[in-house]
């Protein structure tokens, strides 16, 4: 790993553990085992390092989500698999947590990759739901745009509840709850036959 | 307002704006217009002040939610009114935001009022849903415990999405989405007559 990569990796870890306000340039240097001069040779400062770190985390998150959402199966099956996949729930979402950081949201450059990631995720979920609706798997009148926002919010809010309880249980309940509501939107061949 | 009250009020504001890690004792003193000696006369330090601040915020939140959830109307109407009430969305939830603060969740005393508030809210929403189900307003097989967790998560996650987008739109979409899914669980007299 190059020095620059080590610095970005250390920043990713620290942002996840401590947030942006709680992460000092000194702590990044210590974690990366890199001197101050070397850090400033590669990056203008904490903001530039954080931007590289956030972009790398966002890219990972997107690739993982897309792999599950683009897998074979019905819309409901793919969305279930995505919502139920194993997560480090008590650490929170590495992207979502940063939105609570006042110095991140007030910096348009740092906020942008967070916004893009969530916008992409909402869009991708809306596409999967629309596919399911078009194939007759989901109710004709399901509002795919708002439902997609609900699904992303349940994950993000589930992290918040889990951290406050120091337990994964509220996260799991929130996910099971929304999947129960979504399950009631399923329409299958037997329903059509009945109609 | 007494000096102690002024200190607690200032701490509440700063925690909401800057989080716990981002709030220094100095900043609290400045905001309250209170000297260091006077602050330490009233409170042992930042942790004790934050605890008083969080308890006051949690009490407010609970009182407001309970007023709406205990109002007349069907379960769906009361839950809609609660989810759709006016909120300072872009500032985030004063309770939820603190769960992202590493020094808050690692302090059992500070985490406790957050956990209690969300546990209470989930419990209260589950009661309202159970009432609706018992009165035949909502589907018999609706899982009230997990659905209640979903509703709280949608609000908390909605704040996260709104802050990342610097727009209330994703919050509003998430809320409308879950209300759409919950609306499909309504059963009314005309349904019973049809059956």
TrEMBL record, chains A, B:
Signal peptide region: none
GO molecular function: DNA binding
Domain called HTH tetR-type: residue spans: 1-61
Residues annotated as transmembrane: none
InterPro entries membership: Homeodomain-like_sf, HTH_TetR, Tet_transcr_reg_TetR-rel_C_sf, TetR_C
Domain of life: Bacteria
Keywords: DNA-binding, Transcription, Transcription regulation
DNA-binding region: 24-43
PANTHER family the record matches: HTH-TYPE TRANSCRIPTIONAL REGULATOR LMRA, TRANSCRIPTIONAL REGULATORY PROTEIN
Record's protein name: Transcriptional regulator, TetR family
Protein species of origin: Streptoalloteichus hindustanus
